Amino acid sequence: MSEPKTKYDRQLRIWGEVGQAALEEASICLLNCGPTGSEALKNLVLGGVGSITIVDGSKVEIGDLGNNFMVDEKSVGESKAKTVCAFLQELNDSVKAKFIEESPDALILSNPCFFSNFTLVIATQLVGDSVVKLDRICREANVKLVFARSYGLAGFVRVSVKEHTIVDSKPDHFLDDLRLNNPWPELKSFVETIDLNVSDPVAHKHIPYVVILVKMADEWTQSHSGNLPSTREEKKEFKDFVKSKMISMDEDNYKEAIEAAFKVFAPRGISSEIQQISNDTCAEPTSTSSDFWVMVAALKEFVSNEGDGEAPLEGSIPDMTSSTEHYINLQKIYLAKAEADFLVMEERVRNILKNIGRDPSSISKPTIKSFCKNARKLKVCRYRMVEEEFNNPSVTEIQKCLADEDYSGAMGFYILLRAVDRFAANYNKFPGQFDGGMDEDISRLKTTALSLLTDLGCNGSVLPDDLINEMCRFGASELHVVAAFLGGIASQEAIKLVTKQFIPMLGTYIFNGIDHKSQLLTL
Amino acid sequence: MDAPQSKSRDLDKLLLRSGNLVGPGFFPGTDLRDDIREYVRVLVVGAGGLGCELLKDLALSGFRNLDVIDMDCIEVTNLNRQFLFRLEDVGKPKAEVAAKRVMERVSGVEIVPHYSRIEDKELEFYNDFNIIALGLDSIEARRYINGVACGFLEYNEDDTPKSETIKPMVDGGTEGFKGHARVIVPGVTPCFECTIWLFPPQVKFPLCTLAETPRNAAHCIEYAHLIKWHEVHGGKSFDPDVPEHMKWVYDEAVKRAELFGIPGVTYSLTQGVVKNIIPAIASTNAIISAACALETLKIVSGCSKTLANYLTYNGGEGLHTKVTEFERDKECLVCGPGILIELDTSITLQKFIDMLEEHPKLLLSKASVKHGKNSLYMQAPPVLEEMHRPNLSKSLYDLMGRVEKDTVHVFGTALKNEEKQSSLTKLRIVFKEVDGVADMDTAILRVSSKRKTPL
């Protein structure tokens, strides 16, 4: 059969054919192919990314043999980009691999248009100014950008995209959409056909908990002026009420009902996060709106009208103790409502498209269906430009983290990672880069770091001396294990951005390889 | 213009320079770097998703003497992440190909592959290594290695571990976007067994669901796999790697699903359920292995502080890493010292068993006694009880092979918080020499203490 597909089996089980197709269409540009960049790209090549272009002007040195798996003794003196490219091509021959022997810093200055060719750029080991410049270029060209830097036992990864919208966010834990707190007519009618007090004990313990809870919630509201349990006492009472219907201790369906009772008390309607997305300025559709925002506009209309405060029904139900017949019937009821909601949403989407001057069929059925299924889980990620963060970070966040035992290492490294670049700009080398003059470098780095803190508005803050010492000790080294870790994270973020599944990191991930108290900082 | 560069240009910064946030006993210098290269031996268990990455990471972290053990052969589905393997390697032993590939690329490193099961190696094999890095995919395998490594551990009189018997391990695990990396220093940090509760029980469907009230595709598949297969094939065992077997299960699952009106049975799902396939990608494996290799370097060299002691990682929903410092279970059956019991060499097994009932820390009645692999006495079943009964009148010292001290496990009913519970306890038996022939009834049983207090 198609053996490439078998090769990808283990990852298809995560992001499916749709995700894989997105990967195979993506073109990735890597800046600097030291170990950080090479390892990041390796993971993407193994995953079947469409094409890679490596930009690096350096030659392979003997020292590279100690930290980069993709170069070997034969390649010393050769172009590093060429060497790494050849290795990666061999890992997966369905990936188109190219290289450009040029310094990324120079390319950023001389040919910003170059970057518009790509889906995503992974920029590794860039220093100071180049970071800001590249960020501007990619923002302008609407190209996704991931930064990664390894520095001794420290480092960071940062995503920079103007806006990344996600439909298929696949959160780890998300409540099912059973509407026990707001059953619709067809569900109610179905529930009415089942008698909880059936005499046959086998039948009694095979009534699914959805039916039990809808019925009992209904009974409750009838005797409580139309209200569901809301206080702690009422909730306990309700659970006892359900428990009272058990005729023996081994009725799993009733045990499940008691455990799931909280779903009856859950607030109705859409979450505040979805509310926020619906009220976003982008939810006012215009001719340039992306498909995502067109569908959000339709969602907003749906919620206010047919949905009566609710999003389209997700449509699936979790497994539960039940006779096969009841379960299948219940499934059909949920699927039918989800389908009905979808048809309404589809109509609204097509109308909106018409109104903004677009072809009404330009958003496909499967796309709208997926949107409906995931309507409660939508995510919108927006990232500050690096320049903004550099000039205007959250001072309270910095101070808070520096004072917190679990965060001070990571925040210390964040400041120091910026301080070393300043140091390099002033002294033409990184602190501790060479073996002599360590004491002087330590004191200079300390001064640089303190002045940086002052510039950021954190005058009172202090960095632990031990950390400053360590930073000098690191001497701008690129250790393989740190590069592999951060390269791994960078590649993972790239996959999430390209497949538009799962949720990318929101913030700057600072790696702290001393005690592994790495943190995600939002500045 | 440039002086001849060192191959370990970057590592040298950590190994040759002193630092403040370092491990105890860190002596930076070329000796340290060279000692690691020459003398330190690391065993990598597993040459799969984690193992391949570990070998590369360790080879590029200054280690020159590596061994790798793996009983599997390369499959096509490995190729999306086990980067040392190519299509033409399918069918070959993972350990051998992995070793060869890394040695080809990193000159100077020696990797000895072992294409075998971890259980087939002598215990002393494992003792030859300074540290063991685990890239395993099952709880059983981890438990086994943990038992072996902790088995080397000896304790001093004051219950502190003897440092020369400590065999550290670094363990990693991944699933999809999630993973963990942990450091295990037997006798100091919790061992795998101490924190066995961390691992959630495997999902098993109730038999009645499979047999009577299936509701989803997985139920239909497991019915075919666990019930129907045996009905039709009798003694023949099901082999998920035989395509005909898998196809048979798939076809039967489809039939059952049609019968009950259940959608969703696909060949891919069938494989996933039957083989308990864990989705896997290169990036998570790379991340977790890197963390493990970094800790290996730190433990061996002391060049930085180590992870204390468990790192959890989740990269699907944003990015979360967390460090938790778990504590040892002092009464752990695997890594704990066991309750110290000093005995005279004359005491009989029967007397010993009687005394367990009165021992204040044990209060163990109806005890069965095991010494290593030998059962000395079993309370049940009757056949085995009868078989072991003659041992009761023999001296425990003789039954244990006349060693001065050793570990013994006792199993019985203990009184804990006024409740009777089944209990398995580890005991450290130490024999004291006795002058002349002692009366068995006055044999002295002492609780761990420096004073000699008669009963």
From TrEMBL, chain A:
Keywords: Nucleotide-binding, Nucleus, Ubl conjugation pathway. Residues 8-501 form the THIF-type NAD/FAD binding fold domain. GO terms for molecular function: NEDD8 activating enzyme activity; nucleotide binding. It comes from the Eukaryota. It is found in: Nucleus. One of its GO terms (biological process) is protein neddylation. Pathway: Protein modification; protein neddylation. The keyword Zinc does not apply. SUPFAM superfamilies: Activating enzymes of the ubiquitin-like proteins. Regulatory subunit of the dimeric E1 enzyme. E1 activates RUB1/NEDD8 by first adenylating its C-terminal glycine residue with ATP, thereafter linking this residue to the side chain of the catalytic cysteine, yielding a RUB1-ECR1 thioester and free AMP. E1 finally transfers RUB1 to the catalytic cysteine of RCE1. Belongs to the ubiquitin-activating E1 family. ULA1 subfamily. This is NEDD8-activating enzyme E1 regulatory subunit. It comes from Eruca vesicaria subsp. sativa.
UniProtKB/TrEMBL annotation, chain B:
It is an enzyme of class 6 (ligase). GO terms for molecular function: ATP binding; NEDD8 activating enzyme activity. Residues 341-432 form the E2 binding domain. PROSITE patterns: UBIQUITIN_ACTIVAT_2. Gene3D superfamilies: NAD(P)-binding Rossmann-like Domain, Ubiquitin activating enzymes (Uba3). Chain: B, domain 2, Ubiquitin-like 2 activating enzyme e1b. Chain: B, domain 3. Its EC number is 6.2.1.64. It catalyses: ATP + [NEDD8 protein] + [E1 NEDD8-activating enzyme]-L-cysteine = AMP + diphosphate + [E1 NEDD8-activating enzyme]-S-[NEDD8 protein]-yl-L-cysteine. Keywords: ATP-binding, Ligase, Nucleotide-binding, Ubl conjugation pathway. Pfam families: E2_bind, ThiF. Catalytic subunit of the dimeric E1 enzyme, which activates NEDD8. Belongs to the ubiquitin-activating E1 family. UBA3 subfamily. This is NEDD8-activating enzyme E1 catalytic subunit. It comes from Eruca vesicaria subsp. sativa.
